[in-house]
Structure formats: structure tokens, C-alpha cells
Amino acid sequence: MYDYVQTTVERTLTAAWPLPVWVVILWVLLAATFSAWIYYAERGRNGSALRWFLAFIRFSLLMLVMWMFFGWSWQRYTSELPELVVVLDRSASMSTLDIETARGSISRFQKSLDLLADSRKRSRTAVLQRYQTSWYAVANAVELVDVDWNDVASLGRRLVPDGNESKLGDGLREIIARQAGRNAAAIVFISDGTCTLGSGLAEAAEAARSAAIPIYAVALGQELAPPDVRVSDLILDRDAYLGDRIVVELSVIASDVQAAESTIQLRDQTTGVLLDELRVQLSQANNSQTVHLSFIPQSAGEVQLQIQASPIANEQQLDNNSLVTTVRVQDKVVRALMVFAHPSFEFRFLKSLLERTTQIGSPSTASFDVDVVLQDADAEYVLQDESALRLVPSDTSQLESYDIFILGDASPRLISRRSQQTIYECVTVRGAGCMFIFASQSPTIAYAGWPLVGLLPVTAADEASALPNSNGPFRWQPTSVGRSALPLQLDSSDQTSSSFWKTLPVFHHVTPFSAIKPGAQLLAGAVDTNTGREMPLLITQYAGAGRCAIQATDETFLWTSIGGNDVYHQRYWGQMLRWLSRGKLAATRNSELAVNPISARFGQEVRFRLTLGSAISHAGSVDVSIEGGSRIRETVTLTANAADSRVLTGSIHDLPPGRYRAVPILANEEVAHVNFVVRAPPSEQANLRTDVSAMQQLAARSRGKYYAENESQRLLDDLPAGQTTQLGSLPPQSAWNSPAIAVLFIFLLSTEWILRRRARLV
Q1: Least confident segment among 101-105, 186-190, 327-331, 739-743
Q2: Contacts of 294 by beta carbon, 8 Å cutoff, 6+ apart
Q3: How far apart are CA 648 and CA 613, in angstroms?
Q4: Distance between CA 540 and CA 46 in Å, rounded?
């Protein structure tokens, strides 16, 4: 590895006639006592300072005598200097011009040479005296370089940062392995820390720690790459009724952003009309936000939606700033069946609302077609009200025609088991909705043992465990999940809608629930205005293809007099019932597979999301066949989502580069396949950020030190001394009878005699 070995001469002081330690201690004590006693007992009026100084000289003379008794000599050895290894990263990422100096922009590699060349002359001289230095360059492979400390700048004319791969971890491990049998003091590693292939810096740190070689890591470049904003994780109901508010939920994620603002716009891609927009503040501390956009479609049909995030300053990658999706809007009358025990105020106002609500743009067309069953009503009631039924229908086709079932404090004993089972299947299989309104009894106790208990989003309980009723007064308190849910969006924006709930009239009764089922969502709570105690009030859950909800009060009729109208009462119930019955709209929609991302990086997780049509049944999982690339076939199992059993998700992350297609394996439906690509490993220019964390861990794990650019001037001064390797011994040099010892003895003796004479002590 070297043309020659740099050596030095080390000396060790040894005694020819060593004495026991106790003899040395005794001699020192006796010499000190004798010297002090001699001058303490000396006659005369001289000051104590002079006497103590003369006693010190006498003590020094006695110590020189003891030195000569030992026969000290210098034992000399020829030693090899410890090795200092300097490793320079010359991969293409080191050519990045991201460092501003008085000379303009210079590359990271040139900065590493300037760092060593501009170090203080005293520091370089100390390095030359203490170490023998070996130089390496690392990129695709390890390269030994011949460099002189006083001419480091010339290396820039011989080396070019053009390596198309950064095998930094492998390179460091190879260099560490080469130090076996050598005495390396430290490794100086100057890099941006970015590895594109091979093992990472963590493995190199472990190898350095095992070899007891500390790594002094200097990180060059900028920790932040060009900023990037992307939108992902789109969630929305892709089927809606005409006039419904469609809420779009998505994540806005920022990378390498210190502080920026982006405008998220929701547009009709076909017409270009702006439907909604929202500004989000992005920062390094708050780099991921959940955004809700909404609009009300004014016509039926498929609406192509585009979600676009405006680019921020210096953003280069813009293809991930937008998403496109489709929403199917249907102009359909919602058929509802209301089943109550008695005509409560909630029943009266809700029935009246559903009967007079009309379609948007068509005042003569009703939005709801409602049938009602009053279990405690007189027989004549059916003759007086055209919408009234004597009993809950038992005919399957008639029950299947309903889109939403509204069950008040009804007795399940007056609903046949067959009808209940049909209602259950209408919800779970055909996507109908079901709304429970309880005000005077525990729903889980009332429906225990009946088929409808499976639709309740709360767990069953017996009388002993049922919680006592509470009489408030209470106010509505939407949860964080509920504020983004359509039924509780009672105003045009989230802010005004949230503040509106505080102005609602208080109510006085809440039916307590024992426990919420796993997977159910609490949309709102009832807060006791006196004690602050909160109880579950509005709970929803998916039940197969449909959606169910339970409301623990029957006092929403109080909203009909807010501001002299019932607009909020109408909006709440209209949105709630349509929202619950949206699963019925998807009955004719085929199953669809979504792949995210369509173009994935090598090693990146590829996620699959399969939305099943209501006619498809599954046993909790569906297999997706992955075909193409270097593999003939790969299978990914998708499992049901806890929130929606019709949505199945899964992922894979070990696909090699290539083009693929994903094909769901369904027995009774053929789903269109989705093509996607796994890109080859990134080039050197794909990630230009400095991996500060990896460099810090490399230094810490190897017990070295980490330096940022502005701290690198201390590098050479902080290097450890290292240990030399003895190669052979030289003739010893006598130290006990050297001329210097004789001169010192005579000087001390003469000084004592002169001072004694001047003090008239002789």
C-alpha cells in the first residue's frame, strides 16, 4: 500500500538498579525532613522565606543523588507511525453545485479538497509528524490515491466526481478490512452520505466499531433536496345523490420544505370549473396535513374531479401534485321506511320533512318516498295516512326496494324475524342504510336475540350492566372524525360548521350505551352542560355493503325553530339519510382495482385497493395476481378494511424493476387489470440531499466525531494520537551520569553555598 514506511524513534526511561517503592518513599521523607530540620535549627536572624528556599535546594541535591543511584537510561526503539486514512467520496452526487462561496458555486467534491488544502499549516505539520497517511476515493469501487498533504489541491486535476454509483458502505467496509494487522488511528470520511447501492453506512459503522477504528465524518452539501409537495391518500364516496355535498379527503405531504404555502384546488376536469379550494401552510415541523374539500353537484352523471396542489418555490417534480378521480351522481328518489312505536315529536317532524323535501332544480319532484309504521297506532291510522303501513312488510321484494330504514323506539317483537333478516341482508348485501333512534330504552337490550342486533354499532348488554339514563341538559359535540363527515357538515365550511354546533338548543335526554363496537366511529358526543361529562351520541359503522348509525336522542326536532326556519334540521337529516344509503347507489357499480403508485421506485411499497361491487361476496380476503417483470407470477392477498368491508387493501415491496399488471382473482366477476411500473434503482442525481443522519450515526457508532461544513476546521486538531508499532530497539543512552545532571548538581550546590555565605550562615 505504501512505497515506504514512515518511522520514528521513541524513547522510554528505564532504571538500571531499581529500588523497592518503600525505599524510595522513605528516602524522600528522610531527605525532606533532614533539609527542613537543618535550616530550621540554623542560627541567625534570616527570614523564613530564605530558609525554606535553601531547604528546597538541599532537598533537590539529595533527590539528584537518588536519581544517580537508580542508574536511569533512555531505552530507544524504532517505531512505525500510526496510520491515518482519508476517504473521499467521488460519486456523481458530489458534483452537485449547492455550496455558495465568495468564488461562486463550487461542487461538493471541490469543497472536500478545499477543506483539507485550506487547513492550518500547523495542523498539517502535526499530521505529517504523527501519522502516515493513506488516501482513498470511493464511488463504484475503492481506489487508492497518491496524494501529498502539501499539495491536496492537485488531486482535483486527477480525480473527477463522476461515479455512477455510491457504494459508500461497501467501500468503507473494504477499507476497514485492509487495515487488518495495521495500526490505524482513525478514518477521515468526507461525503454527502448518500448511498445508492450496496450496504449502508450503518453496516460500515459496525465494522469500524469491531475493528476499533473511529470514523471522523464530515458531511458536505445541503440536507434538504429540492422541495416537493404531493397529494395522496384520496378518500371519498364515489357514488352520491344529486344535491348531496360530496366531501373529498386527502393528504398533502411536503418534503424538504422549510416554510411554504400551497393552494389545493378541486376542479371539474371536464369543464374546468373551480369547485373548492383551500390554502395550507407547510413547514418542516408540519409537513403532512389532512385536507377536506367539498362541493354540491348540480347535475346528474359522472363528474371527473381533479385535485391540484399549486407548486411551491423551487419545486421541480410536479407530476405528483395532482390526482384525478370520478364521482357518479344519481338523480334518484330515496325510498325510506320509518318504524316507530308511537308518534313522538321526532317522528312527526322527520316524517313531515321527508314528505315535503324536493329535488334540486325540480320543485315538483320529491327527494324521499317514505312509508311509515306506527306500532302503537290505531287501526284507522292506516286508512287516514297514505304512507302508513299496518306492519313492517315481510315481502322480500318490497323491503329490497327501500334505500334507508329508520328505526325509532320500535319493539322488535312486532317485526317478524323474517322481515328483520331481510332488512339485515338489504343492508349488508345490497348496501341499504339503517338509522336507529333511541330515546327511552337500551337498544342492545331491546334487540338482544333478534337479527337486527347485528346492525347496531354498539355491543349488547344485559339489564344489570346497562348504564343509567342521564337528564342533562346536553349539547352536541362533534368529534374530530365527525367534523369531516357529511351528516355534520351543516354549513359551507368546516370552521363555520364547527362553530354552529355550539349554538344549537340544548336537549335533555341521552340513551346511554354500554360499549362501541370495534371499527365503529363516534361522530358526536353529548356533553353535560353542568358536569362536563361526555357520553356517546352519534355512532356509525359499515355493515357489509351498507352503513348503519345510531342516535342516542330523539330531540333534533328542536332545530326546526332555529332562526325561524328548519334549514339545519332539513340539512342534517337529508345529508344523514342520503349518506347512509349511498351503498345502495353502488349496487350497479363493478368492482375496481386501484394501484398506488402507478410508477414506483425500486424497493418502494406498492399498495393495492380493491373496491368490490355490492353483488360480489368474499370471505374477508381476495387474491391479486401480479404478472410481468422477471417473475412469472406473484400473488398478493388483500384483506378487508376495518371501516368498510367492501374495500380490501394489501401491499408488496420487493418487486424487481419491470412492468407489471395486477389482476384481481374473483370467481363471479372479471375486473379490469391495472398496469404499473417498478423503476430501476435511482441514479446519482435522483437524491441530492445530504444524509446528515446517516453521517452522524456513522461517527457516533464508530466512536468518532461528526462535523458539519462550518465545523470542519477543527477536524485535524481533534484527531486521536493513535499508537505506534515498535519495529526494533537501538542502543540505550545513559541518563543518570549525563553532563546535564552534573551541571545541575554543581549549579544547585554553588547556589546553596553562595546564599549561605551572603546570609552569614558559614
Answers
A1: 101-105
A2: 245, 246, 247, 248, 266, 276, 489
A3: 12
A4: 105
Total residue count of the chain as it appears in this document: 762
List all residues 6 or more positions away from 564 whose beta carbon is below 8 Å from its beta carbon. none
Domain ranges of the chain: 8-79+728-758, 82-224+688-723, 226-331, 332-586, 590-686
Q: Which three cell numbers stand for residue 29?
A: 521523607
pLDDT of residue 539: 94
683: its cell numbers: 441514479
- Catalogue the long-range contacts made by 744-747 (C-beta closer than 8 Å, 24 or more residues apart): 744/64, 745/61, 745/64
Task: Give the CA diameter of the chain.
Answer: 147
The CATH label, of 3.30.470.20, 3.30.2350.10, 3.40.50.720, 2.60.40.1930, for the domain at 590-686 is: 2.60.40.1930
**374 DSSP β-pair partners:** 340
368 HSE (CA, 13 A, CB side): 27
Residue 347 has pLDDT above 90, yes or no: yes
CB 81, CB 182: distance < 8 Å: no
Residues 365 and 358 sit within 8 Å (Cβ to Cβ) = yes
Rounded CA-CA distance 455/261 in Å is 44
Phi and psi dihedrals of 156, rounded to 5?
A: -65, -20
Taking the model in full, what pTM does it have? 0.57
**Nearby residues of 640 by Cβ (< 8 Å), 6 or more positions away:** 618, 620, 621, 647, 648
Q: Are 653 and 604 in contact (CB under 8 A)?
A: yes
CATH number belonging to domain 226-331: 2.60.40.150
CATH architecture of the region 82-224+688-723: 3-Layer(aba) Sandwich (3.40)
Check whether the bond before 473 is cis (ω within 30° of 0). Answer: yes
* Kind and range of the H or E run holding 543: strand 534-543
**What pairs with residue 84 in β-bridges?**
133, 186
pLDDT digits (tens, 9 = 90+) for 469-498: 556 799 999 998 888 888 888 776 666 677
Q: Please, what is the Cα angle at 384 between 382 and 386, to 5 degrees? A: 70
Residue 123 to residue 717: CA distance in whole angstroms: 6
For 321-351, b/e burial (b = at least 16 CB within 10 A) is: bebebebbbbbbebbbbbbbbeebebbebbb
Cα torsion 163, 164, 170, 174: sign: negative
What one-character DSSP code corresponds to residue 224?
S
| Complete DSSP assignment for 439-481 | SSS-HHHHTTTSGGGGG-SB----TTTPPPPB---EEEEE-HH
Asked if 332-586 and 590-686 have one fold, the answer is no
Reading the block at residue 629, the C-alpha cell is: 417483470
d(CA 226, CA 687): 9
Cell 340544548 maps to which residue? 506
Q: How many Å apart are CA 6 and CA 699, to the nearest integer?
A: 28
How is residue 375 written as a grid cell? 306500532
Fold that domain 332-586 belongs to in CATH: Rossmann fold (3.40.50)
Q: What is the per-residue DSSP string for 153-172?
A: GGGGGT----BS---HHHHH
Mean pLDDT lowest for which of 103-107, 282-286, 515-519? 103-107
What is the phi-psi region of residue 28: left when phi exceeds 0, alpha when psi lies from -120 to 50, beta otherwise? alpha
Give the separation between CA 338 and CA 295, rounded to whole angstroms: 29
Can you tell me the distance from the alpha carbon of 652 to that of 454, in angstroms, rounded to the nearest whole number? 34
